[in-house]
Amino acid sequence: MRTLMSLFLAATLSSSALAAEAKDFTLPSIENQKVSLSQFGDEVVLLSFWATWCGPCKEEMPHLQKIYDAHHEQGFTVISISTDDARSASRVKPFIKKNKYSFPVLLDKESKVIQQYNPSKTLPYTVIIHKGEVIETHSGYNPGDEEHLEEVVAKLLSGASAEKEAPEVDPEKK
To answer: pTM (2 decimals)?
Structure first.
């Protein structure tokens, strides 16, 4: 009985996450240009909230670059959102340039956007969005997580609708 309840709860949580509308935002990029989520229209978007002081965040970023490189031409983008505050934000651009990350990097110095998507401010925090809806969220990073993220992105890009072929959502990754 307990297993059935756990499965029901997991399915309920997954369904509610799948139905959430992505909140639009505008933030400055590290190049000091204003960037809005709405600019990416119907693309599959992976929001990655991170900070320069976060070890797991820095470990995840090369994997996000590989996913970006593999799927960018198909209508996919990674939007990397630094949550470094005003004191540490000056470290963001040198870190990005040194590591040659080519996806858009935005600054959320006042934590307004992360507050909308992840009030607990757990880092790293990933949100996959398609057609204005949050498809999946993920807290933290463990080696191998990127394989699941790429699988979700590939399914969305292949034209599978979120309702018909929603990727399996592991409740532990919510």
So the answer is: 0.80
